[in-house]
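Thread: quick sanity check before group meeting

JM: Hey all, I'm pulling together slides for Thursday and realized we never actually wrote out the predicted structure for the chain we discussed last week. Dropping the sequence here so it's in one place. If anyone has concerns about the input, flag it before I start.
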Amino acid sequence: MKDRILNISGTARKLFLAGMVFMAPLVFFTDLTKNPYIAQDLLLSLLMSGFLICWSAEVFIKRELKLAYGVADLFMLLFAAISLASLFYNLASGGKFLALIGDFSQKGDVFVFSFVGGWFLAKYIGSWKWEKFRGEFYFNLLLWCFAWFLFNLFSGIFFWIYAAFMWFWAGYVCLKRLDKVTPFALLDVFTAVCAICGLYGILQNAGLEMIWQININYEFGSRAVSTFGNPNFLSSYLVIFLPMVFLRFMKAKSGGEKFTFFAILVIICAYLAISMTRSSWLGVAGAGALLLLFKDFRALLLKNKMRAAAIIAVCFAVFFLWPSGQGGDKYSPAASQRMAELNDLNDASAFGLGAPADKLNAAYHQRLMMWACGLEMFKESPLLGKGLTSFQTNYGLCQGGLMFKNPALGQLKTQANEAHNQFVQVLAESGLLGFISFICLLVAVFWGLWKAVRAEKNEDLRLAYLCLGAGLAAFILDNTLNITFRAVITAFAFWFVFGMLNNLRRAEKTKKIGGVCAWSILFSGIMIAVLFGAWQVGYFKAEITALKGYKAFAKGEYAQAEVFLKEADANAAIRADAAFSVVNALIEERKYQEALEYALRGIKKYPGYYEFYLRAAGVKSGLGDNIGAAQYLKEALELYPNNLAAAQAWSKFVAALPKLRTADNAETAENLSKMFPYDTDIKLAYLLASFESGEYDKACIKGTEFLAEDIFNPDYYDIVKKCGAEGFPNEDLVKKADLFKKVRGRIKAEKYNSALEKEAEKFYAKYPQDANAGLLLAEVKYNGGKYKEAADILMPHYLANKHQKPISFALSSAYLKAGEKEKAKEVLEGILAYDAHDEQALLRLKRMSDK
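JM (edit): ok, ran it. Output follows.
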């Protein structure tokens, strides 16, 4: 009976393992959750939980425990312990308790299932031995792939029957290959996943979608996501196994074996090109350079010169010539198109965070911002960091300071889920202690691998160790610019293979255990499996419910959306957008007080998301609490200062409410005035807050500067006059402003006559560098129908400062009247380039388009 149970459990474990390696990367549902790969995370966790239960049952029945351990295991446990300690330390420190719990609930599956689970799962894999090619395995999976083309012929119950048949077929094929659970058997399954996912991505890129009737690549343009939900995820996955596939081709003996691995190499290279993931390209280049350092690998290339030269030439040709799918009918190689995007970084001024707006490269400068914030988090908590999985929350609290220093950065993406550099992220989240233990873990495994290579007598195995090590090194290099250490499926593949290589230098011991210990292991295994499984099932259900809520909201069914989104938001792991959508639904239903409560709850749970502060401000204002509204607007601007609408609303509150004219608000307004130098509301708030908080010199100096730029502004004029009463020397500017107002009053009254034109020309000759004088002369010319002359007068001043809206609007009007409609539109578009919501510019453009 025991033997029968053990046989069943052993078979179940193989099935669970096959499911983790083969099924989890391939299964996803685009119509169940917002992110399709969430189903993969759930499946991996459930299969791993099932594996844990089977293992616990076998230990219980056998009453023996097999222990496999080495130096790297010590560092692995140390890194895991420090990472958890960082989380608990920051939870105990207070301030962000709900945020940290939410972050770990949402992202902790990578730590639990990919890192810890993948590492320990690898300990129960058989010993390393070079195995013969199993062509029937690849042939059966090729037939399985072709069978998916029939998928859309079925509907209703037959749809699900066919899907079940397909996965039963795949499970049988994988289980047969895993008759013995050896490293090479698993590598065959991993390689098959690479081929299937890569081919599916290539078909998507060509516009052939054989499974889903919707575009699942919309978030990444034409960069095909395949089954991974993100092209970066799949490209990193392929990078791990590319060197090993190359080796299998080089060592292939039969024609079938050569063709199989040749085809897989071509698929991988083609997908790497169309994925446009430059960090993965860097990883592959690094792996190639690393392998060339080893004598065994160089000997392999020299021994098979023709084959090596041919496959390398084919791979390079496929990679550099494969079309991107973004050029329409025009041919455009994916790799060169993607590399051309780095042309922005063509001089030294583009390389730092102080780069001007026209030199910003989104991919590069967003990463600089993330790394700068990551290092700032490390400085704030150097020993233990800011807490495991907390980067996204803390980045939201950091980015505002960078944008205040360089307003141009505000045009970049405003949320960073990860640091896009594994080493910076470990420093930020786990501190110096976590960083050191992580580095020691990597070094211990690679050092053990090198010793295993030197000790191994079998040439094929030595090369296999080197190629797998190079693939893992490529993944690490990739993750100096990528986030796939934080993606469940790719991270699982890395840590599982990393753990298998660690097995090369491990000690094993079988220990007999007593009944109490056996019962404890069985109970603990079942409880851990159930708890972790319930955690992931709960998260998956919440994501399904949230998607229902988003769809209801889009249809205007706000009450139904509220029900679904509240249910989803009750799960701690749910993303911020579900909670934010609850607030929006409540506002649409006019449940303002409840909306405020949910917004305040969102602020506690997601303190790095400025959207909750904006909604709280809006509801507070609607309820008549303008002081409270201004405070939340200010907090939103500290997180994301580039929100012009929020900055304008806050500035109007400061200008209208004397209680808000404090030194602290003057400093905020000063920073905002540097970001939006064209906005008069923000400048006025800065002047009023500075003046009334006692900072007279600052208010008067800036007031003089603002009035000189916009000499007709009555609010600036009043501040400057008050400064004169305080003894500030500005009489000349006041007199000049009075003179300009007098001239302008005459123009408004007389419109146009030759005498007025001559007087305006004399006035402009007196102040030729003053844009305001140019504006007065242009107005006279415009009134006289001399539109081309008006435009010629305004153009030098427009070029000198395109942020002066009065000049821009006057120039656009002159061009339009002169019959130069395209130039008029170009000037208005220039306004929208820095103020996308300017109503006057939008209205004028619409009128031009309607004519």
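AS: nice. Strands lie at 64-69, 507-512. The longest helix spans residues 515-554.
JM: adding both to the slides.
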